[in-house]
């Protein structure tokens, strides 16, 4: 246990706990554990192992930076709803299934993003006259204005991304598409499980 000593404060009341020398071995142990964890993450083997985390970190970073662009340009949608809004486009009426298929995303995810666009008044939902189970989504006048802003931003983003790819010497879009195709042919589970089992190192 960490020993705490209380001394009278001003006016006779208790002062905040004061940590004694017994505290420091615990703090040192915690610091050592944190250092070990951080060193493991930065080791090359662990960098390669945490592919999903690296991709998530990159996505989070680009979302934050793109949201700044949206705010500066007057685009009033979250970044994650961009592809859904752009997929609708002018003079289009698409169902949830149409959008999920076009975007290659789960129905539930697309439905959540459509609901956010509906709440912002950027799209409208119209029941199908011939199929009560089906509804179609289309842009409202306000949605069309936002779509036009988004369309131009995506043009600028494409150019900015190309500058980034040239700077780092890697076309990330091509690399990701190649990785996706390759993993579909032979998944991570197959690649990991076919390796000989190694004894854990402590």
UniProtKB/TrEMBL annotation:
- The secretion signal range is none
- Per UniProt, what is one GO molecular function of this protein? DNA-binding transcription factor activity
Q: Which Gene3D superfamilies match?
A: Winged helix-like DNA-binding domain superfamily/Winged helix DNA-binding domain
Q: Which residues form the HTH marR-type domain?
A: 23-185
What the entry lists under InterPro entries is as follows:
HTH_MarR-typ, WH-like_DNA-bd_sf, WH_DNA-bd_sf
Q: Name one Pfam family in it.
A: MarR_2
Could you identify this protein by its name? MarR family transcriptional regulator
The organism encoding this protein is Pontixanthobacter gangjinensis
